[in-house]
Amino acid sequence: MINPESLHPLIVPRKYIEDSAWDLPHLPLPNDEFILCWVEYGEAMVYLDRAGYNELEQSGVNWQQQAIENVRQSAFFHQYRKDDAITGQPEWIAFLNDEDTISSSKILLHYELERIFPTGYSVVIPDRACGIVVSNECSDKTLDALIEMVRGMYTGASTPMSQAFFESSAFALPPDWTLPIDKETTSLILQLFQAIE
């Protein structure tokens, strides 16, 4: 049995399944440029195959929620932010890690991000190793600089994804997947980003 605590969701381009005969278990996303699949971490990153997927589905465990929880546990690491000079609230948060090729998955932490950015947010994933969350209240000056930064990241990406800024709903997941399992972890994340629940 695959251990759900070793699984992470991974956003990949739709061409992964369109350009091959790969039977990759996946979830179509509202943004049809991308799909969501899962990888298992051990000595190497291994994509969840059909046999493993079927086994998990038959287990009766909400393994997709656990996979998101695994992302949540890593949300404290390798993040950068630009705060508003007056309010101190984040204008954008970038999750980036040269060693972790799935930092873009942190944009799936909808439960926390909706509280950190109560007026709404957009997301951009220039590289599979980077996910950026941008407040709807981000200033024009900051946004202009961020667009330039994203352009450079996309150009130099090891796994290029997109330069486009998408509404958060473009990566919506079933709500029961994104509910926290460990509420203490969520509280710590919200404190980290000065979000008031």
Tags for this model:
single chain, 197 residues, alpha+beta, 2 domains, 5-stranded antiparallel β-sheet, 4-stranded antiparallel β-sheet, 9 strands, globular
Structure description:
It contains 7 helices and 9 strands, in the order βαβββααββαββαβαα. The protein is of the alpha+beta class and about 200 residues long. The chain folds into 2 domains: about 5-70, no CATH class; about 75-190, no CATH class. The strands form 2 sheets. A 5-stranded antiparallel sheet has the order 5-6-8-7-9, sandwiched between helices. Strands 1, 2, 3 and 4 form a 4-stranded antiparallel sheet that branches. The longest helix is centred in the last third of the chain and has 16 residues, at about 140-155. The radius of gyration is 17 Å and the shape is globular. The model has no long low-confidence stretch (mean pLDDT about 90).
Explain the layout of strands and helices.
Blueprint: E1 7-13, H1 15-18, E2 27-28, E3 34-41, E4 45-47, H2 50-59, H3 63-73, E5 79-83, E6 90-96, H4 110-116, E7 121-127, E8 130-135, H5 140-155, E9 166-167, H6 175-178, H7 183-192
Antiparallel strand pairs: 1-3, 2-3, 3-4, 5-6, 6-8, 7-8, 7-9
User: Could you list the spans in which at least 5 consecutive residues all have pLDDT below 50?
Assistant: none
Major sheet description: 5 strands, antiparallel
Quote the beta fraction: 15-25%
Fraction in helix: 25-40%
What is the overall silhouette? globular
Q: Give the helix tally.
A: 7
Please indicate the count of domains: 2
Strand runs, count: 9
Mean pLDDT across the residues is: 90
**Helix-strand topology string:** EHEEEHHEEHEEHEHH
Query: What's the Cα radius of gyration?
Result: 17 Å
Helix-strand category? alpha+beta
Placed side by side, the strands forming the largest sheet appear as 5-6-8-7-9
What is the chains' assembly state?
Answer: single chain
Ends: how far apart? 37 Å
